[in-house]
Write a structure and sequence with these properties.
This protein is of the alpha/beta class and 399 residues long. It has 16 helices and 7 strands. The strands form 2 sheets. A 5-stranded parallel beta sheet has the order 2-3-4-1-5, sandwiched between helices. It has a two-stranded antiparallel sheet with strand order 6-7. It binds adenosine-5'-triphosphate (ATP) and magnesium ion (MG).
Length: 399
């Protein structure tokens, strides 16, 4: 095999080891044998860590890691993606005889074909998620670590919601049998703490009571490792100005991609170390500003009821209820009067279409991008925008 190692990856082996200890109940300070729920903002390196560090660490420990990214294909039902990832492992390790599949009425099978029933009508006749995981364990006799990336997406369909319950039931069944130890370890990550909260904060949700842990953002050590790699690769005449780079990394929300863009632009254009430092910093600040400007432009195009709903969601999530008293009070503050339910409904729909607001299958709502929510609230704090007043003064000016 030829491997092209073109991209710099900063590994976080110690963090992976710690999470594995926590998952298996061997940490002296913190345990998550019911599941580890990790949240960090977009593009900060969650998936890279899961794939490059956590999965290999599980393999080191002789566990079976199964990784599934629910954003891998947003057009597919998240439950289908979870079921497929488990089925693929089962096909690899314990293929089901075609004869047996036909006997239970599954005829459309490929080379090997476990079908898992997710309750969508199409997968009827397949085995349950729990049975599939149990079978896998019986075949391999090793702990299974199921890593679900962007797990909050499962909440967006009824089947996804059911799959989460099935996983919880499987976890309880597999882990509570005396003498067999922990057999199913669950790791769920999400790019919005608010959205992940819906999985654990509500009594009606599968993982009610579980804790959400903030997944640590990459730190200065990433910048130091990046600098080392950068200097080696480019053998540049410029010294990599470490302090300025650390500041720049902070400015781009500790997002490696944006940081890389800022660094390469600066390298392409500048003359010396001081210039490099300054350009990286301004480049980073510009990138941050661009994200805010994009949001401000979309915001400016919203109708007053849409702005009122967005404001209520920003302030009240995870307790926002579209027609609840608190929400009504929040709308009133922005609009000067209470909107009726069809206006609220229409506004929510429009905000979803514009990808400013996210909705779960059970009707929970959140600001789609958590960082933009923070930005919005910083602009509108403590008082929400008063659109009724703004309209009055606009009228007064034009008279
Ligand atoms: N440890 C790392 N070392 C080097 N580059 C990294 C590291 N982690 C992330 N990156 C880079 O940052 C970008 C985003 O990483 P990744 O996709 O892992 O983030 P994410 O948090 O899963 O993003 P999303 O919210 O879109 O799912 C990618 O270009 C990736 O190569
Ligand atoms: Mg990701």
């Amino acid at each position: 095999m030829t491997i092209l190692n073109s991209q710099f990856i900063y590994h976080r082996k110690e963090l992976a080891e710690e999470y594995c200890r926590i998952l298996s109940g061997r940490s002296p300070v913190n345990n998550a044998t019911s599941g580890l729920f990790l949240a960090a903002p977009r593009r900060t390196g969650k998936s890279t860590f899961l794939r490059q560090d956590l999965v290999p660490e599980a393999e080191n420990l002789d566990w079976l890691p199964i990784y599934v990214d629910l954003w891998a294909d947003k057009t597919r039902n998240p439950a289908e993606l979870i079921a497929e990832a488990i089925a693929a492992e089962l096909d690899k390790h314990a293929p089901v005889a075609k004869r047996a599949l036909r006997a239970i009425g599954i005829s459309k099978v490929g080379a090997a074909g476990t079908t898992i029933d997710i309750g969508d009508g199409k997968s009827q006749g397949g085995i349950t998620i729990g049975a599939a995981l149990k079978k896998l364990w019986e075949k391999l006799l090793k702990p299974i670590m199921l890593v679900i990336d962007e797990a909050q997406h499962a909440l967006t369909t009824p089947e996804g919601d059911k799959a989460l319950f099935a996983l919880k039931a499987a976890r309880d069944e597999l882990n509570q049998e005396a003498g067999k130890g922990i057999r199913l370890l669950l790791v769920m990550t999400g790019s919005s703490r608010d959205k992940l909260t819906f999985m654990v904060a509500n009594r009606k949700q599968a993982f009610y009571g579980a804790e959400i842990t903030r997944f640590p953002l990459l730190d200065d050590k990433f910048v130091e490792a990046y600098a080392k790699d950068f200097n080696q690769q480019f053998n540049t005449a410029h010294q990599f100005p470490l302090d300025a780079m650390k500041k720049a990394f902070e400015l781009v929300g500790r997002r490696p991609e944006k940081f890389r863009v800022a660094v390469s632009e600066a390298v392409a254009n500048c003359l010396g170390p001081d210039g490099l430092a300054e350009m990286v910093t301004t480049g980073a600040a510009k990138l941050q500003q661009a994200a805010w400007d994009e949001f401000s432009n979309s915001y400016a195009r919203l109708t007053p009821p849409q702005k009122a709903v967005l404001d209520a969601i920003a302030r009240l999530t995870p307790n926002y209820e579209p027609y609840g008293a608190e929400a009504m009070e929040a709308y009133q503050k922005v609009l000067g009067s209470e909107p009726n339910s069809s206006t609220i409904q229409g506004a929510i729909k429009a905000l979803q279409v514009r990808e400013l607001v996210w909705q779960s299958a059970r009707g929970s709502y959140a600001f789609d991008d958590e960082l933009l929510r923070d930005y919005y609230l910083r602009q509108m704090y403590p008082e929400p925008p008063n659109l009724a007043l703004a309209e009055q003064s606009a009228r007064a000016c034009s008279q």
